[in-house]
Amino acid sequence: MSMAGKGLTLLRLALVDFSRNNCPYMAAAIAYWALFSLFPLALATMSIIAYLNPSPDEHLWVLQGIIKVIPVSREYVVAVIQDLVASRGTLGLLAAAGLLFTGTAVFSAVRKGINHAWHMGKPPYFLLERATDLVMLLGVGVLALIMVAFTTNLLGLSSVARTPEWIGGGLAGKAVLELGALLATFGVFSLLYRFVPNTKVAWRDVWLGAAMGAAFFQAVRLGFTWFVLSFGRLNLVYGVLGSLMAVLIWSYLASMALMWGAQVCFTYSRLYGSREALGVPQDLLDAPEAAPSRETKGLAGPLLTVVGWLLPPRKRQP
Asked: Out of 141, 199, 201, 223, which residue is the most buried by the measure of CB atoms under 10 Å away?
């Protein structure tokens, strides 16, 4: 089979399994918990920065950096975070408790979602689950602090206001920043897909899913930002909840990217990776073929192919 044929087979089986395995619903669960963990995480980050560097100007740039990660409803998010920071003396302990609960909850949803894509029905030990969630939470915190350290003058390198001068301005500078964001996302997804599943995963099973998931994630970030800035008037539909719904929709699409990458990793491992000897699950083998068996003309062939992806599997006769 040619490389194109292998790629189409992988895509077809991944799409079928992604839909039948209810991965979009798992993405919705991740988005739900991500929404609850967003503001406690932002408050904790700003509190740490306030102790490390009390400069108000730097706080503003750090806040803008946080908002860039959430490319929707910036005014709403900024207003909420500023209110939280203003009252952090009162809400410090409450925010810490909320961060611990919701932070581990969102990573628990991520862990369960990735394991769901791998068809792992048996969970690990309870303490091992909680330890995995805490490690992911601490890992994200360390990565966030590293990013802040290198984009502010915490290390005495430069003011964050002059950060664009490090790489140059214009289109080339933006391209370098986007490439760096893509590579960072690829690295994070690779680690998640390699170590989070409750099974042994080879590195060669990870690279394609991490690449596709990272590309999907960055496309969602850029595309949804452009849509909201150009056409997004969610307040007309949701009223005062429009800004909150924009954050929730973005979280859902980003979670879909994460789940899609995990699905590609699983399908690749069973088709061409370390689990090729096991083969793909039987229900996917029963799915209609990528090309219709009977002769078709014009657009009938591609249309029947798409319909075949969505139909339930054929039942075998006894």
From this structure: 201
Euclidean distance between CA atoms 194 and 210, whole angstroms: 10
Tell me the angle at which helices 242-271 and 170-195 cross, rounded to the nearest 10 degrees.
60
Distance from C-alpha of 19 to C-alpha of 9, rounded to nearest angstrom: 16
Which pLDDT score, from 0 to 100, does residue 205 have?
A: 94
Provide the phi-psi class of 170: left if phi over 0, else alpha when psi is between -120 and 50, else beta: left
Tell me whether residue 5 is exposed, middle or buried, using C-beta atoms within 10 angstroms of its C-beta: 0 to 12, 13 to 18, 19 or more.
Answer: exposed
pTM: predicted TM-score of the whole model, two decimal places = 0.72
Q: What is the pLDDT of residues 132-144, one digit of tens each?
A: 777 777 776 666 5
Residues whose CB falls within 8 Å of the CB of residue 38, separated by 6 or more in sequence, listed in order:
70, 77, 247, 251
CB 26 within 8 A of CB 116: yes
pLDDT of residue 292: 41
Nearest by Cα to 209 from 275, 278, 266: 266
